[in-house]
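Okay, is this right?
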Amino acid sequence: MGERQDTARLTAWVHGAVQGVGFRWWTRGRALELGLVGSATNLSDGRVQVVAEGPKDACAELLARLRGGETPGRVDHVAELWAEPKGGLTDFVER
């Protein structure tokens, strides 16, 4: 039995031209590749909120990809909040 890896909950608010460009679909694909669960949600102010739970290093990699310039649309800024995982999530969904 290996040492249990630290898990985390990342909430990221993505600012820019990120709605209607496949951003949530792209984010879901990256999250699933990294083994994360959570959601990507369009907010009424034009931002996308990304919630991801899983290994902390995988959450950090998703955050790096959100900021990395390969995303659909245009990302101007990503605000982040780290917390303890809440659990209860089984998939990564678009809302």
